[in-house]
Amino acid sequence: MPGQVERSNVNYINYVRQQSELIRELIPEATTSNLADIFKTLFSGYCPGKNEFLATLCNRIGMTYYSNRAYKNTLPFERGALEWGNTAQEVYTNYLKARPYNPWNEDRELWKRSIPDVSSCYHKLDSQLVWDVTRNRNELQMAFISEYGLDQMLGSIMTALQSSKEYAAMNQTKTLLNEAAANGWMYPVQIPAIASDTVEEVAVSLRTASNWLLNPSTLFNPMGVWGYTPREDQILIVTPATEAYFRTMILPYAFNEQYVSYLQDNMVMIDSFADENIQFMLVDRLWFAIFNYLEQIEDIYNPDTMDWKIILHVWKVYSASPFVSALAFTTEASTVTNITIDNQGGQLQVTKGQSLKILDTVTGTGLKPKTRNLEVTGGTQSYISQDGTLLVGQYETAATLTVKATSNFDTTKTVQAQITVNNP
């Protein structure tokens, strides 16, 4: 098989013969003396095995082992395949609230409903890319009659396809990071620009932030739910300009040998951030909600133009989890200036036994973090999740509820809205 034997035309053609009964019936075992005759059999006039030969050559040989010559995505955080449908639902149950144990009251508590704080989001198929490359009959013929011509041709085609796919994946993941920071979905940490005279201050800031993530908190994820990130799942994203500082000065200063190893292994590099003030990022590994939906290579021989065309389809979901931590370290100060709740065109109202989506907006400067906490008061059977879903019980007795939104980044910024509860 290719990769185990010499990568000559004879070995490639005989491998294809092993995989296809039709090809075995059409052509003899390949030798160095009959390659030209085999090419004429397959590509001169009508041959029912032409496309099968090229498909086997491409899929069984090309995609199997040429990928290791190609460019590799520096942000390889795919979670796996999206097996069913084109949407992945992510559901998160927030930490539960304890109540004091009362032996005289437990019989009543037993039958009470304990509705958890459950939030959900959907990651939808949003990338459908196609690459194709064409080789003409003369190029195929030259590849056949040269001793290693098929290897060189396949190497050129597959390396180009694989590198293009990986480079696109890196750029789409990079866009995901940049958009999250720009839209306020990352917690900002202000630091000085990284230079030889600031590495100690930066190291302290990194160590502090890394320690923050070790303990449950609502501050560092966009949904404002409780969560934490162990050190081994903290991904450090740097640029070429700062990578050397991290490896030689910042990480050794900030962490002992064990954790230096963790973060060096988890350190990835991109060429730049869209916001030049951002020096680096620290995110939970599960922040990346990237799923493979389809990766398929097709090929066809066009008898009209006598061209061989290879087509690569790659469909993916590129999204981010709002339930896990993501921090951006920036030289720019970030503030929250205001938080509002949309009245949706009038007085907010909800009917007993139904739900209402609360829409809030956080504005500010810099990376303007949008994380906030929602709570509802004034009712006996009403509850709000951190995704903004207000649930009102069928037997709610209150005529009015109050929803309060508080910025997690600046708790002095709050807003309240009154919701009228209507009977069915």
Entry summary:
The protein is of the alpha+beta class and 424 residues long.
Written account of the structure:
A five-stranded mixed beta sheet has the order 5-11-8-6-7. α6 crosses α7. β9 and β10 (307-320) form a beta hairpin. It is elongated, with a radius of gyration of 29 Å. The longest helix is centred in the middle third of the chain and has 34 residues, at 149-182. With 424 residues, the chain is of the alpha+beta class. It has helices spanning 9-19, 21-26, 35-43, 50-65, 106-110, 137-145, 149-182, 199-212, 240-254, 257-265, and strands at residues 78-81, 87-93, 118-124, 127-136, 187-190, 234-238, 267-269, 278-284, 288-302, 307-320, 326-330, 335-341, 348-351, 355-357, 360-365, 372-377, 382-384, 389-392, 400-407, 414-422. It has ten helices and 20 strands.
List the helices and strands and how they pair.
Blueprint: H1 9-19, H2 21-26, H3 35-43, H4 50-65, E1 78-81, E2 87-93, H5 106-110, E3 118-124, E4 127-136, H6 137-145, H7 149-182, E5 187-190, H8 199-212, E6 234-238, H9 240-254, H10 257-265, E7 267-269, E8 278-284, E9 288-302, E10 307-320, E11 326-330, E12 335-341, E13 348-351, E14 355-357, E15 360-365, E16 372-377, E17 382-384, E18 389-392, E19 400-407, E20 414-422
Parallel strand pairs: 1-9, 5-11, 6-7, 13-20
Antiparallel strand pairs: 2-3, 4-10, 6-8, 8-11, 9-10, 12-15, 14-18, 16-19, 17-18, 19-20
Helix pairs in contact: 1-4, 3-6, 4-7, 6-7, 8-9, 9-10
